Amino acid sequence: MWDYSDKVKEHFLHPHNVGEIANPDAIGEAGSLVCGDALRITLKVEPDTEKILDAKFLTFGCGSAIASSSIMTDMIMGKTLTEAARITNRDIAKNLGGLPQEKMHCSVMGMEALEAAIANYRGQALPSAGGAIGIVGEDGGDLVCKCFGVTDRKIERAIRENNLSTVDEVTNYTKAGGACGSCHGEIEKILRRVGKEISPPPAGAEKKPLTNLERMKLVQETLDREVRPELRKDGGDLELVDIDGKVVKVRLLGMCAGCQVAGFTLKDLVGGKLREFVEPDIVVEDIKP
Amino acid sequence: MSKVIYLDNNATTAVAPEVLEVMLPYYREFYGNPSSMHTFGGQLAHAVENARARVAELFHVRENEILFTSGGTESDNAAIRGVLEAFPEKRHIITTRVEHPAILSPCRHLEHQGYRVTYLPVDAQGRLELEMLREAIKPDTALVSIMYANNETGTIFPVRKIGEIVKEKGCVFHCDAVQAAGKLDLDMQTLAADLVSISGHKLHAPKGVGALFIRRGTRFVPFIMGGHQENGRRGGTENVACQVGLGRACELAMSDCKTETVRMAALRDRLEQGILERIPEIRVNGDVEHRLPATMNISFTYIEGEAILLKLNEYGICASSGSACTSGSLEPSHVLRAMGVPFTDIHGSIRFSFSRYNTQEEVDRVLEVLPPIIAELRDMSPFWNQRKKTGGPDG
After folding, report:
1. Which of A69, A247, B87, B210 lies at a CB distance of 3.0 to 4.6 Å from B199, suitable for a disulfide?
2. A interface test, pick of B300, B301, B310, B390 with most A CB neighbours within 10 Å
3. What is the CATH number of the domain that holds B54?
4. How far is CA B337 from CA A198, A220, A250, B96, in A?
5. Does some domain include residue B394?
6. Are B261 and B233 within one domain?
7. Which residues of B make CB contacts under 8 Å with A?
8. What is the pLDDT along chain B (395 residues), one digit of tens a residue?
9. Is the domain of B188 the same as that of B234?
10. Do the domain assignments include residue A206?
11. Do A170 and A227 share a domain, yes or no?
12. Does B383 contact A258 at a Cβ distance shorter than 8 Å?
């Protein structure tokens, strides 16, 4: 069972601002039917001050989705659109006393519906939300997760705003990769790309460049310590064939050779460990037996 | 919270008082090891063998065809691994898309090790096409593993016919009967399975104990290696108290299985009929003609299952859902997906499962509190509101 905070339970059991405003000044929608979450908010806005006079929501979703919608409408009440636009999914989660990691996407949906409503009021096209209910992947980005209709833009944004570093975290915040799992490789790529932008190495931490000899020693140590024991657990192994500059050539052995996920093993396990423990730009090449 | 109304018996059941009673002496006084060379420990071997005889009676088989395990998951894993290792030249397995993870996860793992696995599809009611099974069996098929009854929908597979087909082709047939045990006939004289898994805690024995029937003459390599226990087929000091409990639970199931299943089916039907009468736009998932007497799976369109469960929880009513939001992985039910149930209906699916301890009063209480919960959540749902505007059948 999910470990929901008292605040989440309170807002789920007795949600505030449920319903739809007749003749609203703005409508915002996020999520979609296939995702298993959807939210529509309607706003009444004072034209001169752009103050939100009233906000109501309708939500299809779990306890935390309903609670996120409820508290989000509370939070924006009385604020101007500019003030409301500064609310992030983390603010929503914080005001709920936290959400389980796997449920962070509910707070993201709240933020997206709010943005969509503000854009709608200002007559802009929807910039980033999942789009109108039932339509997915309409933010102009490329569809990465086909099960839940999540685009690369949405994933990039979730990574940047919440400082995500693993596929599991991306799934928790966007749902991407949560069903069939075939897009995990694609999410990995986005993580690496965006990761370089958001967490440059801390100042003063720059290491002196490795000499060839140091690099070779470090590669060998890392393979023996971090990689080969893992492979042996599944009845496989690996042999270091050559090191040419930053290109490490290895040969997969035993069960690993000819394994259907050999490519994944190389790229993610071997490459990941070498980049973590040796140098961030190490490339691994497979020498076929 | 009010008194608990437990309608999640496919997840686990209460330990029967009669079961607990016979177990306690093995925790309090007789804590010895059955393998010991002294009476204090050695006498426990009789208790274990007596319990094994009770389990054997449930299957109508000999005692030496029953292996005690730690539960359904171990029984399933042991059956798959034990048979594959015994037939190293055979590299193909057949199962279905709707099996329990205790079958599907090892199968996926074996695929990584180079085995071929055929996952037979099911139709919209969750039924198998037997002709597809017949065609799927190849000369190098080591094992066919098909469940007796589905844990999510209660759909019963025609395991006797399946057994005939598999045996006709000369293959080994494993049947996961975890949900069927204590509710359906497990007579191995009429069911041609070579291995059958059961789990204690689904039939009022404690968690942490199960059994695997291995028909005499079936090639099997031990899955857990250690001491000489279980005739050398499963190492590890016997879980004496729980095994005694499982024996007693099988005995109880044998004594009143027929009357109890009729009673549970009546309660289930009362709940299902009551819901159908009171709540519009729902669908019943599974094969209602061939279904476990104590299981119902129902979808409340336009709303999400976790929200329903949390509301029911406020009334102390326990059920479960196939919704993605109730699984740790955000993955919606693989069983309902295999049946082609629309996404919304998977998210809005609720399973109620009964045991011998449920009463009519409990069913009536659910019928009292459920309709307002569904109405409240639907009033909150954008899809329901959209549906009303576009003129749904009951809008």
Report:
1. B210
2. B310
3. 3.40.640.10
4. 38, 46, 41, 13
5. no
6. no
7. 111-114, 302-307, 310-311, 314, 323-326, 328-332, 343-344, 347, 379-383, 385-386
8. 468 999 999 999 999 999 999 999 999 999 999 999 999 999 999 999 999 999 999 999 999 999 999 999 999 999 999 999 999 999 999 999 999 999 999 999 999 999 999 999 999 999 999 999 999 999 999 999 999 999 999 999 999 999 999 999 999 999 999 999 999 999 999 999 999 999 999 999 999 999 999 999 999 999 999 999 999 999 999 999 999 999 999 999 999 888 999 999 999 999 999 999 999 999 999 999 999 999 999 999 999 999 999 999 999 999 999 887 766 666 789 999 999 998 889 989 999 999 999 999 999 999 999 999 999 999 999 988 888 777 655 43
9. yes
10. no
11. no
12. no
- In this predicted complex, what is the ipTM? 0.86
**d(CA A44, nearest CA chain B) in Å:** 18
Q: Which chain A positions have a beta carbon within 8 Å of B383's beta carbon?
A: 33, 38, 60, 133
Structural domain including B147 reads 17-253
Q: Domain tally for chain A?
A: 3
Q: Which residues of A are less than 8 Å from B385 in CB distance?
A: 20, 58
Question: What does the angle CA A69 – CA A73 – CA A77 come to, to the nearest 5 degrees?
Answer: 175
Q: Cβ B382–A63 below 8 Å, yes or no?
A: no
Do A14 and A110 lie in one domain? The reply is: yes
Is B113 inside a domain boundary? yes
Q: How does pLDDT run across A230-277, given as a tens digit for each residue?
A: 888 777 888 899 998 889 999 888 877 767 677 777 777 888 888 888
Residue in A103, A133, A178 closest to B382 by CB: A133
CA B202 to CA B14: how far, in whole Å?
A: 9
The reply to whether residue B332 touches residue A261, judged by beta carbons under 8 angstroms, is no
Same domain for A118 and A169: no
Provide the angle, in degrees to the nearest 10, between the axes of the packed helices B305-314 and B360-379. Answer: 130
Closest Cα in chain B to A41: B382
Answer whether B2's CB lies under 8 Å from B312's CB.
no
Chain-chain contact of A12 with B323 (C-beta, under 8 angstroms): no
* Cα–Cα distance for residue pair B54/B66, rounded to 1 Å: 10
Are residue A147 and residue A123 in the same domain, yes or no?
no
Range of the domain at A180: 140-199
Q: Is A30 left (phi over 0), alpha (psi -120 to 50) or beta?
A: beta
Judging contacts by C-beta atoms under 8 Å, the chain A residues touching residue B326 are 62
Per the CB < 8 A criterion, the answer to whether B181 and B161 are in contact is: no
SS3 B46: helix
Chain position carrying tokens 């990769």: A177
Same domain, B228 and B368: no
**What 3-state class would DSSP assign to B197?**
strand
